[in-house]
Amino acid sequence: MSMAGNLRKVTGLDRVGGLRKAARSRRGRGRVDLSHPARSPLGSAVVKCVTYENGVRVPGGGDLVEDVERLRKSEDGFVWLGLHEPTDNEFAGIAELFDLHPLAVEDAVEAHQRPKLERYGDTLFAVFKTVCYVEHKELTATSEIVNTGEIMVFIGPAFVITVRHGRHGSLGPLREELEAHPRQLAKGPAAVLHAIADHVVDDYLSVTDAVQEDIDQVEMDVFADNGARLDPGRIYQLKRELLELKRAVVPLDRPLQELSTRPIRVIDPEIQTYFRDVSDHQLRATEQIAAFDELLNSILQAHLAQVSVAQNADMRRITAWAALIAVPTMLTGVYGMNFAYMPELHWRIGYPLVMAVIAVGCFALYRGFKRNGWL
């Protein structure tokens, strides 16, 4: 059977009954966006379907159902099936072939799950949140900094099924890297699960390093000479994006602890040693995020303090200038009342004397305010 036939069989599009309706439904949809790197040229959710025996990739072309049954009996290899954002109809045949639990299937199709690890008999279901850093020229109050996606992984006897959601986190390079190390790949589906977990956590560390540069830039701007004029929306935006990163990273702690410490049937004890290393890296990312959160709180408080100090300085200046204006206003107000019998009205030096008093009074006030730092 051809590879196209295999993929169509895996996604259940050649089955009878309800799946035949799915085929008609798919034909009625619009054209598949082939520019999307994760979509199959066949238009289905299947990205890749590869068979491995003893860590070596087997050339395609065989019958998938027969391969799965044979590998389950021999225990010498497994099938790795990769999908991207499958629909219920596309995933129905896969769930039936590999006997996947309906609750796990629902989570894999609907997405928007927290990182977790669940066991259903001989099948292990893991959810990872993927993250990527969004490049930007300048951080603004609306800049997107962190973009998240999801990878769901089913592993069981003789199979690995990966389901991706989102436009990043492609597993193609990871697959090629694993194929370059057949001894590691020969350890079975657990080796693939470890490689995916390690890949995801490494991305966490890369993103936290990039976010740190944004935080450093905001910190420099806050403590610059005109730091009080900084838009606080930039700080709040960093905190919002950091919260999204935190939701992806922190919940993964418990699943990794289980994978590295608790005995699991489908996880080789030797692979658990590698999961401990991944858990250490995830803990490092968690600690960095917690430190960033505290640092942003301190930066925000410092910025608000600077704004308060700047406002106090402005009020002092306004008060000082108001006091300077009060002296001539008082004197001119008194002599502007136009009474007939007012002192000094008929003096020849009356006007120069009043102007001199105004000038001396304003100068004395100016010197006093300047000396005290109000002006």
> What kind of sheet is the major sheet?
7 strands, mixed
The amount of beta strand, in percent, is 5-15%
Order of helices and strands: HHEEHEHHEEEEHHHHHHH
Question: What is the tally of helical segments?
Answer: 12
Broad shape: rod-shaped
End-to-end distance = 88 Å
Low-confidence spans: 13-43
Rg computed from alpha carbons, rounded to a whole number of angstroms: 35 Å
Give the strand order of the largest sheet, numbering strands 1, 2, ... along the chain.
2-1-3-7-6-5-4
Structural class: alpha+beta
Number of separate strands: 7
Instruction: State the share of residues found in helices, binned by percent.
Output: 55-70%
Let me know the average pLDDT.
Answer: 79
What does this molecule look like?
This protein has 375 residues and is α+β, with helices and mostly antiparallel strands. The protein is 56% helix and 14% strand. The protein has a seven-stranded mixed sheet, with helices on both faces. Helix 11 packs antiparallel against helix 12. It is rod-shaped. 32% of the residues are buried.
Main attributes of the structure:
single chain; 7-stranded mixed sheet; 375 residues; rod-shaped; alpha+beta; 12 helices
